[in-house]
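Chapter review: from sequence to fold.
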Amino acid sequence: MKQRRLAIIGWGRLGRACADVIHEAPDLSLAGVVRRAESLGTPPPLPGAPPFVGHVRELQAVDVALVCVPSQAAAGIAHELLQERMPIVECAALDGAAAQRHHEALAHAAARHRTAAVVGAGWDPDLLPQLRRVFELLIPHGRSSVSLHVAAGAHHTAAAAGVPGVQDALCSEVHDADGTMRRYVYVQLAAGADLQRVREQVESDPVFAQVPTQVLEVADLTAFERGTEGVLVERLGEGAQGPHASLVLEARLNVTQFSARLMIDAARMLVPGMRGGCRYTPFGLVPLP
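The C-alpha cell string follows.
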C-alpha cells in the first residue's frame, strides 16, 4: 500500500498534534514541516527526521498540505498553497459570515488553480454544529443548548461527595448565552453504586436544588481534572404529545487533538485529481458551490 505523504504548514500545537497522528498511521507519512524562516535553526526531533523547510516547494512528493497556522493567517497561507496547485486541508476557527466568505474564497481559488481545498475540518465551530444538527433532525420539535466548560474551573463539593456511593465529586458552573446558570456535578462512584439514585439525591439537595443541575459519572476524577475542555450538547423534545425524547452528549476533550484527527481524516478522503472546494463531514466531503 502506497503511503499518502502529508506536509504540515505551521508548527504550533495543531501542527505537532497532526505529526503525532501521522506517525501512528501506517497509511500516511510526513513529507515535512513548513515553518517561518526565523524558526528553522534547530528543528525539534521527530521520528524519521522529516525535513523542516521555509516553503512547501522545498518538499518532495507532497500529496496534501495541512494548514495548521492561526486562523487570522489561514486565508493567506491557503491561497499561496493553492496557487502552487497544492491540495489543502484547513480548519480555521471562523464563525458565521466570516466563515462563509473564507470557504467561498478558497473554493473559488481551488477551482481556478485546478486543485482541491477541504474546509471546516476542525472541532469547533466545524464538527460541533454538525452534531447539534443531527440531534435536531432526530428530535425536530424541541429546544437545544450547547454549553462549553473547562475542567480546570471545577471545584470539589462536599455536598455531593457526602452522598452514599460517591467517592468524590467536582462541581462546575457555566452560564448560557442568555445568562442562565447551569451546574454540572461530576461524580466518581464506589463499586456497585447506583448512578440514578446518586443523581436523585444530589439534585434534591438544597445546595443544588435552586439551579438546574446535571449529574454526570466520571471514571477517574484525577484524570478528569487534567482535562482541558468540555462540552455538553442537549436536545430536549417538547410539544403537545409525549413522552418526549431527549439526547445528551457530554464530552471531555483536547480540542487540538480532535481537530488534528479530523484534518487527517479529511486528507484521507481527498481523491487524487479532485478540484474545487469541499466541506468536511465525517461521512464524506460535500462539494461547495
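Two observations follow directly from the output. The mean pLDDT is 87. The two ends are 33 Å apart (CA to CA).
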